[in-house]
Amino acid sequence: IHPPDLPSNVELRGPIAHESISGLMRTWHAGLIPFLKNELTQSVDPVKYYEYRACGLPILSTMFGEMLFHAVHDPEVWFFERLDFSKIETFLREWHEKQEFLTEYEKSSFSDYLKHASWPERFETGVANCSWLV
Fold first, then answer.
1. What is the DSSP string of 22-80?
2. Integer angstrom CA distances of residue 94 from 89, 99, 106
3. Shortest CA distance to 107 belongs to which of 48, 50, 57?
4. What is the pTM of this model?
């Protein structure tokens, strides 16, 4: 499926079995999180962020919700609003070339993103930071 307004290197797919997602994401060059910036999304923390980073993908996102926080702490989050799209292909190619030189230890840290996205981890954070009762 390819709507006419998408670039030729972006493919829109239908539903994909959950067990196939991880392998498929490992073939991508970047994860996309194009949310609108509005009242509804101002406090959204998209699960896709953690999934993409766990696969070692850089993220191209709009500036919304918790993505602003992630960008402060994660240099692999880049905002569409700040990108020079004429250079994005070169930028991503150079980024991926640098990834080839990461140590195994550095690569293993990607799985930490999934750990921090778990419901127990999020609940513990809520208890610690918001005084939720257990």
1. HHHHTT-S-EEE----STTTTT---HHHHHHHHTT--EEE-S-TTHHHHHHH-TTEEEG
2. 9, 9, 18
3. 57
4. 0.69
- The answer for residues whose C-beta is within 8 angstroms of residue 91's C-beta and 6 or more apart is 83
Determine the Cα–Cα distance for residues 17 and 2; give it in Å rounded to an integer: 20
CB-based contact 71:77 (threshold 8 Å): yes
What are the pLDDT digits (tens) for 8-58?
Answer: 777 777 888 888 887 888 788 899 999 999 999 998 999 889 888 888 889
Amino acid at 130: C
How many angstroms separate the CA atoms of 34 and 4, rounded?
A: 18
- Enter the DSSP assignment of 117: T
